[in-house]
Design goal:
With 145 residues, the chain is mostly helical. The chain has one domain. The chain is 52% helix and 6% strand. It has five helices and two strands. A two-stranded antiparallel ribbon has the order 1-2. It is globular, with a radius of gyration of 15 Å. The mean pLDDT is 88.
Length: 145
C-alpha cells in the first residue's frame, strides 16, 4: 500500500445522497459501504465506469484487510501478475468501477423499498428506513451463502 501518496476514493455523484443515507442507517464509515459495493460488483463480475466522479473519502481509511481483498481481486483477474498491484491509484480506480456496479446491485436487490419517491436524486426515505440496518444485514448474509 502506497502510504506516501493518499488517494481520494471516488463514486458516481448521482449516488452521493444514497451513500450518505446508508452510512447514517447501517454503516460505520464510508469505506465500509464502498467495500460492500466493491464485493457485490466483483462477485457479479460487473464493473461500471464512472462518467463523472465525486470524491468520497481518503484511501487512508481503507483497512489493511480491505486493501488485501482489493489486491487479491486484481491479482485474480490478472493471472496473479504482481505488477498490477504496484500502483495503488490503479487498484483503487478498478475498485471504484466494481463499487459503481455494486451500488446498482444493492439498489436493485435490497434498497428499492427504502428509496424516496419524490426526488430526482437517488436517496433513502428516512420515514421508511427504520428497518434498513436489518435488511442490509440480511442481504449481506444471503450474498455469502
Amino acid at each position: 500500500m502506497n502510504m506516501a501518496g493518499e488517494i481520494r476514493v471516488r463514486t458516481d455523484p448521482k449516488y452521493r445522497e444514497l451513500y450518505n443515507g446508508i452510512k447514517s442507517f447501517g454503516m460505520g464509515d464510508m469505506h465500509e459501504l464502498f467495500f460492500l459495493c466493491v464485493c457485490l460488483g466483483y462477485k457479479a463480475r460487473e464493473k461500471k465506469r464512472l462518467t463523472s466522479k465525486d470524491e468520497r473519502f481518503w484511501s487512508r481509511t481503507v483497512t489493511p484487510d480491505e486493501y488485501a481483498c482489493y489486491y487479491a481481486m486484481v491479482l485474480e483477474r490478472n493471472d496473479m501478475d504482481l505488477s498490477k498491484i504496484q500502483d495503488d491509484t490503479a487498484v483503487i480506480s478498478e475498485m471504484e468501477e466494481y463499487a459503481n456496479a455494486g451500488i446498482e446491485i444493492l439498489l436493485r436487490e435490497c434498497l428499492s423499498d427504502y428509496l424516496a419517491k419524490t426526488t430526482n436524486e437517488v436517496r433513502l426515505d428516512p420515514t421508511s428506513s427504520e428497518m434498513l440496518p436489518r435488511a442490509l444485514l440480511h442481504f449481506v448474509f444471503e450474498q455469502i451463502q
